[in-house]
Design brief:
mainly alpha, globular
């Protein structure tokens, strides 16, 4: 059940990263996560995919930055396709940015993911692994049920409306 917690924590950190980036750049403050839980699944999936890289990669910082950035960018591209094809929405569009591939990924963000790999693997994950190992299974099962419920509701609403605004339950200022 540790991987459930990794997904949740890194999805939450992704949510915080999105909020911080929007404030810093003056970008859109729309909700890019689930209906109720402040989680951005693309970050959780990307982090988990990177953590599954072989030890030979995880133990070498330069290799980790390169391979981790590539893996995270691949997950980002795959999630963009999933959002577009299955849920009929698009959460980001990198058209006009250097190295953009169909607006789904681009060089500046691929480089950002590469830089984030080192603190993820060497700073955050050791603490996350210790904490996740200490959480009792009944708690994990309850959290999994809540997560699956929110994923199902959010996905259903997105697919039906085809619009991300349906996830916005707070008032804009």
């Amino acid at each position: 059940m540790e991987w459930l917690w990794y997904f949740i924590w890194y999805s939450f950190l992704g949510f915080l990263l999105e909020v911080g980036y929007a404030r810093w750049t003056g970008g859109r403050r729309d909700r890019k996560c689930l209906l109720l839980l402040p989680l951005c699944p693309v970050y959780g999936l990307g982090a988990c995919a990177v953590l599954l890289l072989p030890p030979v990669v995880l133990e070498r910082p330069l290799l980790l930055a390169a391979a981790g950035g590539a893996v995270a960018t691949g997950v980002e591209y795959g999630m963009a396709l999933f959002y577009e094809w299955v849920l009929r929405v698009s959460f980001w569009n990198y058209e006009g940015l250097p190295g953009s591939i169909q607006g789904r990924v681009c060089i500046p963000f691929a480089l950002a993911w590469s830089l984030l790999m080192l603190p993820l693997v060497y700073l955050l994950h050791p603490a996350a692994a210790r904490l996740a190992a200490a959480i009792p299974d009944p708690v994990s099962w309850a959290v999994l049920a809540a997560l699956l419920g929110d994923l199902a509701i959010s996905g259903g609403i997105l697919r039906r409306t085809g619009e991300r605004a349906c996830l916005q339950w707070y008032r804009r200022r």
